[in-house]
Amino acid sequence: MQRIISACLVLILSGALVMTITAAPILPSSSLKDQVRSLHGIEKLRVHLEPLSSAITDLDVDADELVARQRRKLRQAGFEIVSEAQATDPGPVVPRLTIEITGVGDQQVAGALACTISVTLEQQARIERLDKELFLPTFARHATALVPEAEVSKTIRQTTFYLVDQFADWSRLTAAGR
To answer: Whole-angstrom Cα distance, residue 62 to residue 146?
Structure first.
C-alpha cells in the first residue's frame, strides 16, 4: 500500500512540475510579452531567499547551499551577482531575484508535503499614472507540487534550478532581440 501511495505521489509531482504558471500577478496571456521585455538589459542582480518554513527546514533543506547554487547558475548565465550593500551604491537600483519556498503537510496525506516555489524579479519601474518610480515585481515563475517527504530536498533543488533557468533563458531571449 505504501508503494502505491508513493507511486501516486511521484506521478502527481511529475504532473505538477510540468504545470508551472507565469504570473506577476496572474496576467492575461496578451500581457506576457511586457513581462519578458522587462528583463531586457539586466546585467546585475541581487539574489534573496525568503526564510524557509519550518515544514521545509525540518526536512534538512540547506538554504545556504540552495542560494549558492542559484547564484552560480546565474553567474554562468552571464549575470553579475551583487550583495545588498553593493546594490545600494549610488546609481540605479539593482534588480532583486527573490526565491520563496513554502511547504505544508496534511495528516490526510501522511508522508508528503505540499510545496510552492516562486522565483520573482523585482526592479525599478515607472508608473506613468502616478508619475513615480517604484520597486515592483515584473516577472515571476511558480511551481506547486505534492512531494514525498524523502524527496522534498531534491525536488526543491531541481525545481528552483528549473525556475531560475527559465528566468535566465527569458533574459537571454530579450538580449537576442526576440
So the answer is: 20
Reading the block at residue 56, the C-alpha cell is 521545509
CATH number at residue 25: 3.30.160
- For 120, residues 6+ apart whose C-beta sits below 8 A from its C-beta are 24, 97, 98, 100, 137, 139, 140
- Please report, for residues 14, 43, 160, the alpha-carbon distance to residue 35 in angstroms, rounded to integers and kept in the order given: 27, 17, 20
Q: Which is higher by pLDDT, 77 or 177?
A: 77
> What's the pLDDT score for residue 25?
47
How many domains would you assign to the chain?
A: 1
The overall average pLDDT reported for the chain is 82
| 176, pLDDT greater than 70 | no
Under 8 Å CB-to-CB from 17, ≥6 apart: which residues?
A: 143, 145, 155, 159, 162
Using alpha carbons, select from 105, 121, 102, 125 the residue that is nearest to residue 113. Answer: 105
Evaluate if residue 13 carries a pLDDT over 70: no
Strand ranges, E, within the chain: 21-22, 44-49, 80-81, 96-105, 112-127, 132-148
Asked whether the predicted pLDDT for residue 27 surpasses 90, the reply is: no
**39 exposure class (CB count in 10 Å sphere: 0-12, 13-18, 19+):** buried
**Is-cis flag, bond preceding 25, omega within 30?**
yes
Which is more confidently placed, 85 or 50? 50
